């Protein structure tokens, strides 16, 4: 890994007090949805992002969601935490995704798509694992922010973007420029911020799940399948969907459950391009 990326991770600012408090509440078995709502109500940015997500066609809520407490009640503690952390971290890291050929807004949309797909899919596979995977999928592309920044600083943005545009394997492109994949960078970022080891490791191996320890291989495989279907450069392309379904079949999943979840997303909104 390039020393410049390591230095960038070491220089990351701490998470906001709101996010630290959200993590504390989530870890406390005695905490309630009301406790979480009270914390979020003091952070206008988190409220705005929650309401944007809640009113997205992806979730199909029957009425317009107008308050943070409504959104928290509908999403539940785990999903609320995921959305709050994901959007806060992207703000904290000052996103510039030009080397990947997308805007920061599109990057956020794709992260939400990945998280939604894995949630809808895994609720049919193993409901207990679905929430854990939702957070991991929502955050697994975070390392791309630091890779993009490093590519820009190295004055390689044009050549990098050219390769990204045509690539069916973004991890390979990242490795060739930064000596590291997005999953490895993301793992180091959340290790730096003190996230639990299992969460860090499932993301670390998300670009190479066959090398993952057996305990977390299923998680890493699921994350890899979702980012294959919804990569940042070609989300929901026919080729990506077919590759992802093939990976699911090879991994022993009932790929029809995944295919149904993909179809539901495509039916809900036009593919992100």
From TrEMBL:
- Known PROSITE patterns for this protein? HDOD (PS51833)
**In which domain of life is the source organism classified?**
Bacteria
Q: Please report the stretch or stretches of sequence annotated as the HDOD domain.
A: 12-209
Entries under InterPro entries matching the protein: HDOD, RNase_Y/CdgJ
One of the Pfam families matching this protein, by short name: HDOD
Protein name as catalogued: HDOD domain-containing protein
Record organism = Candidatus Sulfurimonas marisnigri
